[in-house]
Amino acid sequence: MMRDDLDRILITKEQIAERVKEIAAEIKRDFHDEDLTMICILRGSCYFFADLTKALDNAVTLEFMAVSSYGSGTTSSGEVKISKDVSTPIEGKNVIVVEDIIDTGYTLSYLKRILLQRKPKCLKICTLLDKPSRREAEIEGDYVGFEIPNEFVVGYGLDYAQKYRNLPEVGVLKPEVYKK
Ligand code: IMP
Ligand code: MG
User: Fold this and answer.
1) Residue 4 has pLDDT above 80, yes or no
2) 146 lines ligand 1 (CB under 6 A)
């Protein structure tokens, strides 16, 4: 059982659902009825992206990108690679990048730089989780779900070695699981 590998639940599905509604309201307050292009950063933000886009009544174009900065370990390599890009140009669009977590910040600071070169009308960063104590690159989220302590978390899209993504809540992984 996946849950047996958790030290504890950090964020319940009810808390996530509540916060998703609040973030949708923040986005609505900033963009009113404008069209949006929202980019899901695969695979970690898949559930957050699905829930958040459904909570908005704007016309939303769904885009997907895959980037990697990690192997199967729990520390950043600082190296970022785009393995799947968006399928339509973002020039002149209201773009919101939806990420699972900002940790060192390397992934998003790199991605932001690349996307800004494509001249969107505006570019916002939305992240479910933020570990500010771990930041090395200069980047912050415009919309942040939860600030969390420096612990390795899984669930609601987040993985350890591709496992635990489909847990409906966010939990702290027992350190012995990744020290094995
Ligand atoms: P950054 O480039 O260090 O900000 O790393 C961002 C990426 O690292 C995220 O998109 C996650 O895939 C991964 N990551 C960072 N911290 C965690 C964690 O606690 N659990 C699972 N994945 C994490
Ligand atoms: Mg990831």
Assistant:
1) yes
2) no
CATH label of the domain that carries residue 148: 3.40.50.2020
| Number of domains present in the structure of the chain | 1
What does pTM read for this prediction?
0.94
Work out the pLDDT band at 81, boundaries 50, 70, 90.
confident
Q: At what angle do helices 13-31 and 46-54 cross, to 10 degrees?
A: 60
Taking CA atoms, 74 is separated from 24, 68, 169, in Å, by 30, 13, 19
Mutate which of 39, 40, 101, 152 for ligand 1? The one with the most ligand atoms within 8 Å of its CB, which is 101
Residue 100 located in a structural domain = yes
Q: Which H or E run includes 9?
A: strand 6-11
The encoded tokens of residue 89 equal 């140009």
Across the chain, mean pLDDT equals: 94
Residue 68 lies inside a defined structural domain of this protein: yes
Distance CA(176)–CA(25), nearest Å, equals 39
- Is the beta carbon of 44 within 6 A of some atom in ligand 1? yes
- Triad 41, 3, 7: Cα angle to 5°: 95
User: Side chain identity at 68, as an amino acid letter?
Assistant: S
Q: If residue 7 lies in a helix (H) or strand (E), which one and from where to where?
A: strand 6-11
